[in-house]
Amino acid sequence: MAVLGIQLIVTLLTISIMQKVTQRFSFGKWILCKTGLVYYLHPTDAELRKLAGIPQPKPKAKPKEGENKRGKNKRKWEEPVEDKTFTVPRNLELQLETAKIFPKDVLQLKFFTEFVWLVDYSVFVLVVYFITEIYCGIYPKGNQEVNLSMLWCLLLVGFALKSLCSVTSLYFWNNEAAAERSLVLVGGSFCFVLALGLLLIDESNLEIGLDAAYSAFNQSASVFLEQQTMDSEGPASKLILKLCFAVWCGITGALFIFPGLRVSRMHLDALRYCSERSVLKIFMYINLVSPFLLSLLWIRPLARHYFSVRVFGNMEAPLMSEQSFDSMRFWLCLVLSLVRIISAPSCFQAYLNLAQEKIETMKKEAGRISNVELQRKVAIIFYYLCVVGLQFVAPIVLCVSFTLMNKTMGGYGWFGQHFYNPDECNSQQEPTATLSNLLPTDKTTLGDAREQWLVALGAFRQIFSYEVFRGVFGFANWWMQFLSFFTIGCGLAYQSYFSEA
């Protein structure tokens, strides 16, 4: 319980620091305003008239001095009615001006608050998590207590999913976004069917751990229900549980489809703009292929077999142990996610450059366009910068969150020393707590309440064991990586098809 008290202190301190630090320094604002991003200014009406050869409007007439404005000689001065909408040729030789992004410019952006909150909260979650990990590493008994950092990670998952839902809802509230709505529904349905097929793969090939998690949960839950003298046939069948996982996969697939398309477009544009910067180009390539590489780490014949089973040449043992391979997988998930965050400013700048690209594309078209529509075409790119930022950051946040939860809740270690080994675990250990013993009474003291809390926590740990959490969060972690790779791959195929067309 001492470790739990330390975690409560760290949590309260972090909350108080969050309120003070974010007012002066925000990592989300820093990404938008301090990384050298520039946006394109839309042309003014005067500039468009000058380029199109349209006469400028006459200035407003002023009344002469000394003229009587009262009585019957009163003269009515009316402002000339000016039509502010006019048309210009589409092939107008127009070059947009650029401006550096300042904090006052981003306050008006759509979803600015959500983007800044998600990024800042993610930073504080990482701080709380690694402080807790360091403390539990110094005092190993802390691993037996409630880990409050998991509550922070769970809230982070909720915030990320809520942000993606808010962004996706834009396509359903807009009457002109019928094609986008159809794409979201098709993407979710396809991911649901794809998940059903992937969940049928034998876990000797795809090690997501759901079968082992179901067996452990079914056994411990059945024993617990028998001790509570409850008539039950046990938990739901494996088919129903996998169907629920497939539904969750379909929902997340619908939320990821447009972020994947957007990220793939930004990557291609960023690679084109940084062709002369070799170091940045390497980062962009790593960023592009990292979801694919990470999703392969859960395929046993391609990853674990070569690293921790097969013995090469004259070696006496594999390259690493089973535990070291698990730790290496977590490190790679975090490091490659960090690389993706580092490349965020380049991707955002590639998105902002779409304003000039739209103008260059418009020059190849015939006909005329109104000044309002042309200005809107340019201004809307910068207005939706935070929407694009959420589409870029939220999938990475989900990958990191499920990686941390898989490591901690699954009893893994960072350096190959796990807290749980299924080979050494006594699977016949039965829960000893009963619900009748846990109900409070009038004579319950503080010490009795503490003992009841420990007994309830022990019963919960025996039902939802490390093996159960390994299956649940292991599958969630792998699905996030695979979904990022799948949606980005679809986006690359889409972009290559239309670029060739």
From TrEMBL:
Pfam families associated with the record: Tmemb_161AB
Major site of localization recorded for this protein: membrane
Keyword Signal part of the UniProt annotation: yes
Membrane topology value: Multi-pass membrane protein
Position of the signal peptide: 1-24
Family stated for the protein in its record: Belongs to the TMEM161 family.
Transmembrane segments: 115-138, 150-171, 183-201, 239-258, 278-299, 330-352, 381-404, 471-494
Keyword annotations from UniProtKB, A to Z: Glycoprotein, Membrane, Signal, Transmembrane, Transmembrane helix
Protein name as catalogued: EOG090X04CK
Keyword Acyltransferase set for record: no
Cell compartments where the protein resides: Membrane
Organism listed in the record: Daphnia magna
Chain positions covered by the region annotation Disordered: 54-78
